[in-house]
Amino acid sequence: MTSSGVSELRISAGRSHRQYWQDLWSYRELFYFLAWRDILVRYKQTMIGVVWALLRPFLTMVVLSVVFGSLAKLPSEGGAPYPILVFSGMLPWQFFSNSLTGASNSLISNANLISKVYFPRLIVPTSAVIVSFVDFLVSVIILMGLMIWYNFVPSWHILTLPVFVAIAFAASMGAGLWLATLNVQYRDFRYIVPFIVQFGLYISPVGFSSSVVPEQWRWLYSLNPMVGVIDGFRWAILGGDTPLHWQGFALSTSLVLVLLGFSIHYFRAYEKTFADVI
Amino acid sequence: MSDIAIHVENLGKQYCLGHQSKEKYKSFRDEIAKGAQSIKQRILPWGDRSRKQNDHTFWALNDLSFEVKQGDRIGIIGHNGAGKSTLLKILSRITEPTKGEIRIRGKVASLLEVGTGFHPELSGRENIFLNGAILGMGKAEIAHKFDEIVAFAEVEKFLDTPVKRYSSGMYVRLAFAVAAHLEPEILVVDEVLAVGDIAFQKKCLGKMEDVGREGRTVLFVSHNMATLERLCPKALVLNHGQLMFQGAAEEGIKLYMDQFGQPNTATAKSASYSELHQMGLCEPTVELIENGKNIDLEVSVAVESQREQKGVGISIALFTQTGNRVAGIGPRLHRKMLPMFKGKLVQKFQFLAIDEKLAGGNYLISLSLRRPQVEIIVDLPYILSFNLTPKIIYPDGVPYCYRDFGTVLLKPDITISAPQQVISLV
């Protein structure tokens, strides 16, 4: 790595380094190390350790199933058991909300790093999203357990799941990067983010199926980027009894992509001032 | 051109004072309020438009240009706030300049703080990997140097203990060890060696000398002139964000000392007056008088008193630049109480005979007015300073200056040896 002596680096005002993406690549191991640190630290000095990673989503699923399924008696999709319906919505939602919380605080909680060492700053919030992704993978184990318990066999749709995971990742990165940048400048977002997460749980189809939403409101409803992601997950996991609302899905997905593009641009524009402002 | 490692041209860095000093963080509400204000100003022509931008900004670096050749070891000298750290931060790409351009050839590694990125909950082993990755090493590279790092830090036994249980010495050793095993073409080091015990400091300096010997370029910031002179043959002197000098370290240090350590004869403007006691000290001065083999130091200070008071005397103490007390004497020892008086009185002290073996360098003087064993009436810490030129001792003309011993003889008859300074590393 040290043998790249010939390359000349130019630093000047307002110039975004041409080497940025190259740097990102040469620091690729830092993605892993920062995520590794956060995961390792989380369960240090806890009694049951990693079990928390399973317990938290499981308990949330139980509560949501009881409240929406048994008490409110909302309908499931097709013949799928309600807990599986809830869990297939909760998977992407938890991933998204954990990423949002993690990423938006990541720059602030690594302030000492940012003001003392150089590396592409994009790594910090991305690592936070990766941490949530690991949680997501752990939760998938619970989903498999539920499927075995209810004797539920998914259709071929399950093979399309990686596509929806990618969209969920893009949505998490998009919102996470933007909020992380805003949080550096305005600490108000420390208080706004938990609110967004709480609010989002009710306006996204986590505890209920999108089919509950009246047709005339469908467009407005699809403006929430997580609607497309969650519907996609449901479609892939539960099988094809209910067709995907393609127009709504396309709208949500394109919003996700626009958000991601905008956020990366926004992040890159403010990145250089982080060390001075943080 | 090919042997230039760093080329800096018209570099400037501006900071906003307003935001950072008044409000620690920008808050959204304030921004909205400010936004509304600026819209109002834009729409309504009679608004206060003449708000000067200059009041809120500050140039930490201004119009700085210099070049560093490959393999140079350069010390950066300057008083607090001269822009040393800002320069290092820009060179290591932590923050970007407001204007100007830098061209750098080779990979830069910067060590601005020891232990950046250490996580207290993680073990020593885990932190080596984490810290290494943050500083830009790959996993394989760290694994390769792992044993070397551990041996350098001397923490073999505690590798699996969380670093939060480390002593601060162990912590610093481990942190430096990781950083020291980076192998960049350009190493940028801020004052980080001021921690750790003497043995470890010695080791760190040795390591940094090795780095220099291997032909790497080193930029080093320190307030410890002895260390700096030993490590770097060349120096840059910064003053208020501008380049004052570039050249031989010896010359740079001398210039810096003369400029900021104040000349041999100094009159400090500061004075201190205690309303409670209705007494004060003012007009302190210091003068060096060559006197054969010795140098006499004459300090004078005026005492003001609104009413006659008994049992008051002046104490004086001599410190090295780094704050080590070299010698001191007070009324309990010299027994020269001030006479009862009203008005102003000038009191002269003589440090008789600073002998020629006393280490050269900058010294500071503190004065205080006190009632022995009762109270300090006014205190003027580090109010005066003087510079002692080290003497060449050998009769055969080989230049050598004593650095670690020598005496200051205080009147009337007390001899106090200078403490062993950090310089004793030599």
From TrEMBL, chain A:
Protein family membership: Belongs to the ABC-2 integral membrane protein family.
Bilayer topology annotation: Multi-pass membrane protein
One GO term (biological process): lipopolysaccharide transport
Residue ranges annotated for the ABC transmembrane type-2 domain, each copy included: 48-270
Name of the molecule in the record: Transport permease protein
Locations listed in the record: Cell inner membrane; Cell membrane
GO molecular function, one term: ABC-type transporter activity
GO terms under cellular component: plasma membrane
UniProt keywords, alphabetically: Cell inner membrane, Cell membrane, Membrane, Transmembrane, Transmembrane helix, Transport
The keyword Transport is annotated on this UniProt entry: yes
Domain of life: Bacteria
Organism in which the protein naturally occurs: Phormidesmis priestleyi Ana
TM region positions: 47-68, 80-101, 122-150, 156-179, 191-213, 249-267
InterPro entries, per database record: ABC2_TM, ABC2_TM_bact-type
UniProtKB/TrEMBL annotation, chain B:
Keywords on record: ATP-binding, Nucleotide-binding, Transport
A GO molecular-function annotation: ATP binding
Classification via InterPro entries: AAA+_ATPase, ABC_transporter-like_ATP-bd, ABC_transpr_TagH-like, Bact_Polysacc_Export_ATP-bd, P-loop_NTPase
Presence of keyword Cytoplasm: no
Domain ABC transporter: 44-265
A Pfam family of this chain: ABC_tran
Coiled coil (UniProt feature): none
GO annotations of cellular component type: membrane
Family, as annotated: Belongs to the ABC transporter superfamily.
Protein name per the record: Lipopolysaccharide transport system ATP-binding protein
